[in-house]
Design a protein that fits this description.
60% of the residues lie in helices and 0% in strands. The chain starts with 25 loop residues before the first helix and ends with a helix. The chain has a domain of 50 residues. The protein has 73 residues and is an all-alpha fold.
């Protein structure tokens, strides 16, 4: 991967041009990052909701009261 020939660092830096790879793909990476971020949040919400529903079903009725009394008495 070549970012250009830099023989000397003296002079005006704007004359060098871009010195990093994949110039022009910044918007693509922003879109990929935002899509990943939103997708992760959706997955996290579904996972937490499923876990909450499982725990709510597990501790339904007297099971919760019994578990609390056994732990604290």
């Amino acid at each position: 991967m070549n970012t250009g020939l830099v023989e000397t660092w003296t002079g005006n830096i704007t004359d060098l041009g871009p010195i990093y790879p994949l110039v022009g793909t910044e918007w693509l990476w922003i879109i990929v990052g935002v899509v990943f971020w939103i997708g992760w949040h959706i997955w996290q919400l579904r996972f937490e909701s499923r876990t909450y529903d499982e725990e709510q079903e597990r501790w339904k009725g007297d099971a919760l009261v019994k578990a609390i009394r056994e732990d604290y008495e």
